[in-house]
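Teaching assistant's notes for section 4

Start the section by putting this record on the projector. Ask students to predict, before seeing the second block, whether ABC transporter permease will look compact or extended. Collect guesses on the board.
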Amino acid sequence: MNTRQALYLEITGIIAAAIMAILCGFVVILFSSHQPMEAISSLLGGPLSGAFNIGTILNKAVPLIFTGLALSVVFQSGVFSMGAEGQLYVGAFVGSLVAVYVHGLSAWIMVPMVLISAMIGGALYGAIPGWLKTRWNANEIVTTLMMNFVAILTTSYLVNNVFKDPASGGYARMHYVGDGARLGKIFAGFPAHYGVIVALLTAVVIYLFMYKTRSGYELRLVGKNSRFADYGGISTKRVVIMSVMISGALAGLAGIVEILGVHGTYKDNFSSGLGFDGIIIALLARNHPIGVVAVSLFYAYLQVGATQMQVGSDMPRELAIVIQVMLVLFVSSQAIFTYLKQKFALRQKAVK
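Reveal the predicted structure now:
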């Protein structure tokens, strides 16, 4: 079985899992709702019912793409990092400081400067657990989870005290970002912001890096067999540090794009678990950058559909969580992929 055939089977399996998860959601609706047809119609058709909803899907998908890419990179190096949430906060905080306190620059200089600052903040924060792992073999799951709380609570203290906008009253936030540093709307009357383009370009860059460069090959090789990589002369410690820093940079990018494109200011606890959602996105996408984009759009579609369903029927929006959980269960269980591969192998033998 060549690489293209294996990828085809992976995609087929994920699509089949998504269909089964949605069917499970339909079963829940049929047993729980007094308006099952209205609920199903709103869930499936609502997200595509107008430009506003479509733009909302794209905006919600943007941070998921970044965090999904962040985790897909580090997972492929064999490091199971859980730290995207903390890196997201640190990157957003550092980028927001630059956006608020640096003045007098054109948007063409200001926006890249803010984005790069956020990436540096996230990368440096992500490097800490990577260094701990390579220096003392500290378990990355424990260290990254602990550092999430450190990042969230530290930035919360700073935005509540040191950098709080006096005009915000009892609301914990920084000063609003100037128009020169904001990510504006792509089209007038369409809510999607330029972060959508940044996210798609980033996905392409990560794909090219992972599959078309020597560094990407070394990263994937270390993840598959670190001993073999060592024998081949690859510095596994360097690769691990590189992977966690790239992951942190992408997570920081997720945070600052959400600030510049949606909120307009750094707010306390602005993330709704986007870093943890990225773990699920990466796993569902089988750590493939293009798959991350597709799964992120599907996730955002479900979120918007659930909101429309709550408005148009008697079903709560939490049904989307049920579908997401079922999707994770179906994809994480290898049975469907094993069945497809066995069926494909039998078909190949029959042809021969």
